[in-house]
Amino acid sequence: MSDPRVTPYKGRPQAPRRILRAVVDLWREPGGPRDSQLLWGERFTPFFAEGDEIYGRTDCGYFGWVNADALGEWQSASHWLNARGSYLYADANLKSPTLARLPCVARLKCTRGANGFLAADGGFVFAAHVKTSPATDYVAVAAGLMGAPYLWGGRSDLGLDCSGLVQLALQAAGHDAPRDSDMQEYLGAKAAGAAMRGDLIFWAGHVGILLDADTLLHASAHNMCVSAEPLAEAETRIAAKGGGPVTHRRRLD
Helix (H, G, I), strand (E, B), or coil: what is residue 207? Predict the structure, then answer.
């Protein structure tokens, strides 16, 4: 049986569009429930429309529905937001009105600016908050999201679930990553030997990243936020709640 998350049930790919809202819910069906989210500047490929709702594919191959008014004309991004969050300002002046609150890893089309700002997507962004290449350390990206609230289906600094945290951190560092934890179990290679910083740790329906050999960083419904805790304590607690043992430990190149 085909997986509806990654297999279209109707329509054909059309010209790609661009997300022009800070964070947009991707729905399993029109109106919900939320399966994932799309972020400012990401690509969405429509397959067909029903009224104001568009069914299509994200860049990671995930299918779902978004509101049509979240989509704009496609253009490739030149910069990534390199901060946990920032603002799109009306002018190159931090006292000017804000047009949008930009999430971590937003993709922007930037040109030359002034006063420490770059012109971007109809406004201005603080130049020190963007860069032209991905981050170099996905663990540091994930750690920078410490305290962000837990949100089922979330994948922005305003709210994440466990696999959303892993995907966002990996994408920020230039790694392709699928959306859900059962898909992420095949990233990299089976980790041999002692646990290491950056290893991905999997349970049935859950995933986290090792900050070091003994510390797990994850978006947890137990703590309702992105938090770090001793790996041994997390293993004991998850098993006690019926989540079973660790099923996989994977290591990226």
Answer: strand
